[in-house]
Amino acid sequence: MVILLCICLILPQTGCANVSAGGDEKISVGVVVYSFDDTFMEEVRSAIKNTADKENVRVEIWDSQGSQNKQNEQIDQFIKQGVDVLAINPVDRTAAGVIIEKAKQENIPIVFFNREPIAQDLQKWDKLYYVGAQASMSGMIAGQILAEYWKEHPEMDKNSDGKMQYVMIKGEPGHQDVELRKKYSISYIEQQGIQVDKLAEDSAMWDRQKAKERMLAIISTYGDQIEAVIAQNDDMAIGAIEALKEQGYFTSDRTFVPVVGVNATLSAIQAIKEGVLLGTSYNDAQRQGQATLLLAKELAEGKNPQESGFEKETGFSIDQGHYIWVRYIKITSENTNDALRNR
Ligand code: BGC
Ligand code: CA
Questions:
Q1: What are the respective helix, strand and coil percentages of the chain, to the nearest 5?
Q2: Is residue 58 within 8 Å of residue 26, measured between CB atoms?
Q3: How far is the CA of 197 from the centre of ligand 2 (A)?
Q4: The model's pTM
């Protein structure tokens, strides 16, 4: 540290300002998150915060409380405050265009995360990025877990009609994960030569309690006809399991209902260990938060991450000039530990 400070004093032009005393010249990142009530975003938030602390970057993280208007005001406020870079988890991903115009005018780069702006918006400027996980992959993993179970457990076909009667509990309408997880989970199962038959499909806004309510209604209509439940995240999978339990399922092998989720939250891993959740895919919040913050820092320093050695240093590669993708991992009772690394 002493040596570093000396070098800074001798060579003030080398950009050492951030390690000099006072800390006033630290890079500052303004972060907005669509809602602090979201379990998954809580993990992403803390990953952003921890990485910022490690990197000696100042970060402020604000709760947009599910309102795009509120978020727009928060972004105006951050711009007024003079942040060096913005990291945005939009409430409404189609609102990105307006936000981009503002930031571009002030030359403030943006890293969007978790809620993906449409491709055309991201093309509007070279200082726009998106960090997320590829929704199609989580869909395929959900399909794969169910298809494998179906093949190994003929009793899953309760009515022996050769078709998988399923229920789908979806997240918030308009979210990229909703359509893609839906499409890829089902097409994966069909590609395995298994016919499907949709009993019910409903939205529960990523929320455990709402999913429980929806599922209770679905059980009262379809009961024992239900052969599989595809929940688009773990909170909703757990809500569905609670409803099933309340209605007498999961008391014996005979009343087991295969349920899959997405995220591999800690409660989901617990549910897998208890044998009530069949599987999920690990949506790596740690790496997404880390990539978001590291990329934001790089941009705030005025660097082009595709030329600066960022990819080599961090291990995050940039796809098509604007994207960092974090991989999902399939999690079942066989490998729950894979979702516990880095946590
Ligand atoms: C997660 C959901 C979460 C949503 C928030 C998704 O990727 O799977 O659990 O609610 O992101 O935008
Ligand atoms: Ca059947």
A1: 50, 20, 35
A2: yes
A3: 8
A4: 0.91
